[in-house]
Amino acid sequence: MKKKICSIALSLCLVSSIALAPLNTTSTTVQAKAKKVKAKSVYYVPGSSYAYHSTRNCRTLRRSKTIKKITLKKAKALKLRACKVCH
């Protein structure tokens, strides 16, 4: 009987310590690090461009006078596709 009471008490202690422990501590750390990562920048020509470029020195941009730097997310929102030359 004494063994049974001790095992029940130990079980309750373990369950209560698990319930009190913070959940997903590693995922919150990963999320915090992900926010620190900078968004990837790409280049495009506003008004006449249908593609984004990984580098400002892409040969298809040689004659372009207005080259803007934007995030990849914004380029996709503008429905630009990846350049066939530099991607």
Explained architecture:
Keywords: Signal. Residues 1-21 form the signal peptide. The chain has 87 residues and is of the alpha+beta class. The protein has a domain at 41-82. It is 43% helix and 14% strand. The chain has three helices and four strands. Strands 1-3 form a two-stranded antiparallel sheet. It has a two-stranded parallel sheet with strand order 2-4. The longest helix is centred in the N-terminal third of the chain and has 19 residues, at 2-20. The radius of gyration is 27 Å and the shape is rod-shaped.
What order do the strands of the largest sheet run in, or round the barrel if closed? 1-3
The ordered H/E elements are HHEEEHE
Q: Strand percentage, roughly?
A: 5-15%
Q: What shape does the CA trace take?
A: rod-shaped
Number of E-type strands: 4
> Which structural class best describes the helix and strand composition?
alpha+beta
Major sheet: 2 strands, antiparallel
> How many individual helices?
3
Mean pLDDT: 78
Uncertain segments: none
- How helical, in percent, are the residues? 40-55%
Estimated radius of gyration: 27 Å
What separation lies between the terminal Cα atoms? 73 Å
Keywords: Signal
Signal peptide: 1-21
